[in-house]
Write a structure and sequence with these properties.
heterodimer, A: mainly beta, seven-stranded mixed beta sheet, four-stranded antiparallel beta sheet, globular
Chain lengths: 115, 112
């Protein structure tokens, strides 16, 4: 069974640029969630994708957007980067069965630094 | 909205000491509760969970009981090891919406 993988591991961008982060779900999972973890803080929910549709969104501006592909992999796109976007971005996959499946399996994260 | 409050860290203990990390929550409805652990340089790993009141989650010697009357889910371990050094996060999950709400984390350091 392959776990959740994310790429790249580290990324440095300049303020105003755009970035795309990628995530491959654990085998058999159909739902992907993205979280932002600032240094010394707990992860904050950005959004979730199920069946290629956004299925819930946290308190993040529209310049944070995402995609889920038919193979359940996912991308997180951030436009017009700001210094405060510097954080560890975590992807989590799970199997949503309609009755609530809460075991989310996290990838190792992508460390984004905005200068 | 939903929220999780964790014991402030950092926490430093000697090997074989007893561990308690406090966690309380605020939620509408009947959330599931989780403890995740984050080792240095790694992502989050699910440590244990409880899905309804009075459930006890346990794993690797760690335990936590879902207490609805006190809205708490405290993490305990009877004898900690150096390898338990990590950051521990308490989290709740909304029924029907798999969003997780996390606490701010508690850094635990075990000294030999």
């Amino acid at each position: 069974e392959t776990g959740v993988t994310q790429s790249p591991t580290h990324l440095i961008k300049t303020r105003g640029q755009q970035v795309t982060l990628r995530c491959s779900s654990q085998s058999g999972h159909n739902t992907v969630s993205w979280y932002q973890q600032a240094l010394g803080q707990g992860p904050q929910f950005i959004f979730q994708y199920y069946r290629e549709e956004e299925n819930g969104r946290g308190n993040f501006p529209p310049r944070f957007s995402g995609l889920q592909f038919p193979n359940y992999s996912s991308e997180l796109n951030v436009n017009a980067l700001e210094l405060d976007d510097s954080a560890l971005y975590l992807c989590a996959s799970s199997l949503y069965g309609g009755t609530g499946s809460y075991e989310q399996y996290f990838g190792p994260g992508t460390r984004l630094t905005v200068t | 909205g939903d929220s999780v409050t964790q014991m402030e860290g950092p926490v430093t203990l000697s090997e074989e000491a007893f561990l308690t990390i406090n966690c309380t929550y605020t939620a509408t409805g009947y959330p599931s509760l989780f403890w995740y652990v984050q080792y240095p340089g790694e992502g989050l790993q699910l440590l244990l969970k409880a899905t309804k009141a009075d459930d006890k989650g346990s794993n690797k010697g760690f335990e936590a009981t879902y207490r609805k009357e006190t809205t708490s889910f405290h993490l305990e371990k009877g004898s900690v090891q150096v390898s338990d050094s990590a950051v521990y996060f308490c989290a709740l999950g909304d029924f029907g919406n798999e969003k997780l709400t996390f606490g701010t984390g508690t850094r635990l350091t075990i000294i030999p």
